[in-house]
Amino acid sequence: MIKNLLQLSLLSAALMFFSFANPAVESSGGGGLSIGDVAPDFSLKNVDGNYVSMSDYEDANGFIIIFSCNHCPFVVAYEDRYNELHEKYAPRGWHLIAINPNDPVVVPEDSFENMQKRAREKEFEFPYVFDDGQRIFPKYGATRTPHVFLLDSDRVVHYIGAIDDNHRDADQVEEKYLENAIAAIERGERPNPAETRAIGCTIKVQE
Fold first, then answer.
1. Distance of alpha carbon 192 from alpha carbon 177, whole angstroms
2. Which of 44, 89, 144, 159 is deepest in the core (most CB within 10 A)?
């Protein structure tokens, strides 16, 4: 009996370690949208003062929705990759929209005014919108920044999770989860993996 319990404990510990060591084996977790669900549209204020909805894009093949912010170092590490994704995929009908879900009372650096400043500094050419009132991110089930939801033209969810497998160094990326998912959809296939673990800062809400 004691031997069996010890073996079960060791197996559980090993599985837990593997889940955290490999982002491709852990789902986004926490409720919200799942693969195959239809994502809700939104109307959120962009840094240019206009409101953005997915329904604005009549030519869309799909949407790269990234829950993002200003202050998180994980986001900062990915911002140049945001620009590269937009430049590569917008001409192919895949539209990137970054959504800041953080409460600026908790993190003043993530205020709308600072979003505008950051967008100018990084020369964002894609919408960077504010989830005012934090109504959208819970519907999606986003928990981190950055956290990606890849949708087709009908807003059906095909991929959830991380952009790739190396937030520290873009030159050392081995698995481009998001780009591989887009390629699979364009081939008429299902992304594999369809979910990975989003690695980043927790979304900030008032307690």
1. 8
2. 159
